[in-house]
Amino acid sequence: MSAYQNEMMELAYPGTGDLTAHFMKDGRSIPVRGFQASEDTVKVRFLPMEAGRYTYTVRGAVSDSGTIDVLPARAGHHGPVRAVGTHLEYADGTLCRTYGTTVYAMMHQPDSRIDETLETLQRTPFNKIRLCVFPKHFIYNENEPAYFAFERREDGTWDTSRPCYAFWDRFEERLCQLFAMGYQVDLILFHPYDRWGFSSMSHEDDLRYLDYLLRRFAAYPALWWSMANEYDVMPAKTMEDWYGIEAFLATNDPFHHLIGNHHCISIWPHERPYTTHVSLQTGALNRIPEWMGKYRKPILIDECGYEGNLEQPWGSLSAEELTARFWRTMSLGGCCTHGETFLDPEDPDEVVFWAKGGTLRGESIARVAFLREIMEEIPGPVEPVITGFCLLRGKTPEELETMLAGIPAEQRVYHERILAMEPAERERFLDGQVQYLGCCGAEAILFYCDLQTYGRFTLELPAEGSYTVEVIDTWNMTRPIWSYDASGSVVVPLPGRPYMAILARKNH
Amino acid sequence: MSAYQNEMMELAYPGTGDLTAHFMKDGRSIPVRGFQASEDTVKVRFLPMEAGRYTYTVRGAVSDSGTIDVLPARAGHHGPVRAVGTHLEYADGTLCRTYGTTVYAMMHQPDSRIDETLETLQRTPFNKIRLCVFPKHFIYNENEPAYFAFERREDGTWDTSRPCYAFWDRFEERLCQLFAMGYQVDLILFHPYDRWGFSSMSHEDDLRYLDYLLRRFAAYPALWWSMANEYDVMPAKTMEDWYGIEAFLATNDPFHHLIGNHHCISIWPHERPYTTHVSLQTGALNRIPEWMGKYRKPILIDECGYEGNLEQPWGSLSAEELTARFWRTMSLGGCCTHGETFLDPEDPDEVVFWAKGGTLRGESIARVAFLREIMEEIPGPVEPVITGFCLLRGKTPEELETMLAGIPAEQRVYHERILAMEPAERERFLDGQVQYLGCCGAEAILFYCDLQTYGRFTLELPAEGSYTVEVIDTWNMTRPIWSYDASGSVVVPLPGRPYMAILARKNH
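YS: structure for the whole thing
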């Protein structure tokens, strides 16, 4: 049989029961466990990440063996996303910048709504979506889903040994539609907003659920595991439970998808080795350099608020503000996530996109598309450029001494005052000093002016090389070139409006 | 002779030398020291704060005595401003809300420029101005003034025993013009931006300078003492020096003007008894409730950035943002300060209003006028209403226990998580939770929506009484009434735009 590199392939057998397959190539063997796909079919799924001939053996409820000729990856099939330093790459080495959106309860809506949502998503700049496996019970999320992931036991709890095939088939069909559209799906495995009991299953049930999910889905390349949305406000789970879930995902996923955990109040310990990236709910995007420095992992702003008109502060950002949050994030080398929360008070179904999907009407989307077009011209990952007083952060006493010695005496009083501040106060002060300035080595420098209405800005370019400098209006989506040949310290004229940016790209 | 209550009156004598007067009424005696007003005139100035007959005696270089019939205050003459709790009042009990602006180096410009500045200031909503006694050396502040406060000694240092009368006469004339226009003048006594040596005089010289200034100016009611602009970045002064300056002002000013001190990085210890109010340089207006709670003194946001186009972040706020800073401040019961920093790159004189004065072109001024009109309908001081998670701040363990016991179990997890945060992280989290909600007892509730684009907002009004509720567009300056008779919890429809506010005033 044949398959394509970086695409899921499966072996299907009639019957029931457990089975394990081994896929072998060049002396390496990857064990993969099968799953019950329906009452009378058992499957095992594999993600070949190299082209060439694999052999396989299946043991357990079925015995089988054979060969697979894996053809080279087709265009656009880059393999699963990996964390590499502070950025993301596909398995084939292609840089991955995500432009996310959010439809938490998408999968638990009527078919017609999901169709409408997918049609909408096809016409956006997004390439990542956050959505939940379990249904969501929350404001504007009251409708009862048609299917649940498992059958119930007689006592009303979920029997995680009996998957509801209709649920999983339908879920998978929709996932595959998203994959075909080029979306990475950041699958939210648990969440607190629940009236059905999925948030308070036993740890054993949690792992049995994950076991089925991994066996069934892990061979799809474009999936990420988000352990939870707001893990920290699920009183039924302890930190030990979360560590167990994390370890289970890391050791039972043969294809090593990204693992993150999203918080409400208490940031997840992202330094944990199995946690691949830093998933954050925050509007404090000026703290990205701090988090990137602390964790040295990719920063994913998975929730920074939504463009909309809800009564909740998180659901009533202007398009300008959400656009600004994308620029703040990306100028510092992170990835940001969109969501839309317009509530039509006349709509009895309370269809709010961030929860149920439907159609989009916001004005930030076009600006995210414009940002994406610009970012795609930056040839590699962006990291923050720390400037001014923020250079005082995270230094050893020796480093500070050297640094202060290099500062003219009349300027040093500022630094000394900052160092003398009470630490918590100092952090809050320095939070206000962050500039949205990032660079891709010496290849590109990106400065986002944010709300500031500068009439000019002095950009420090490397003295060597020549740069093309453009002045970007991130709201009006224009990007006239100011200079085709700039280098060193240059004073770039700006129009005195908010939401401007400057991009300098090295000429070759 | 006669005088008016709450207006400066003076006794002038030919000659030179020190003198002290005592002004007596109803058995109380106020000693006031005189000053050399010119080479051949010595004066003593008094601020009668009661109507009726005073007697006085003068001793020293001159001996004199007499009576003064003090007529009741004329309209608009309310006496000096006092701090009362967390708000300001004039001596006659009238509530004082300040709408400040900034022309630091106004007094050190050519006469024609000062004339132009005063003409400009007359057509604004402002009633307070911050300006420096000493000239300013800083970006866009390079011009040499015509006069200095003192003559120089042979070694080049300032001889504070020899005032330059031309300087002081001119300064005083301009002050009086400001007073006549209804301005409170927040006089900045020291500042670091200096090439002449005024920032590094000896402590003795500092006090001799203040002595002259107090003797000469203290009888003017509409003056405040701002010990410094950015006191903390003046390396020549120690904290002990500042405490000495503070004590000198407090004990040598017979009329007890307000005393504040303005910082750059390290907030002044505003809890000090002689410090009458909290003068702040900050854009973190969400921290006003914290500071008001800590100091229980009036909060004056004396520097929150300026509307303009400078390259410096503090000098490139949009009109929208500066307007928002006024609303954030005033909805929480503080007073805010405007400044304008438009630089015309073609202007060889670099006339930037915040420094030199001239004309204003910004768009925030009209909005400050609109805000002032609204605030004047609120019959008393506003204090912050603490809501949501911010209620966790500043509680004792016992108070917290009681509070948590009153929260439904499913909500308590949020509070517990917040309490479990590392303290510095918790403060930064709670900073993001502040609402711009204030009240004047049960008389008025003011909610500023800030950047949020709410489609509606649930306002909690007292159940007793009836309120007139208006929906204010703070940018477009409209304030349609939504209800003439609202009470209890009401859902106010909002247009989904930023910069809205809701004001509810009790009907009588």
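YS: worth flagging: The mean pLDDT of chain A is 97.
IM: good catch. Also The radius of gyration of chain A is 25 Å.
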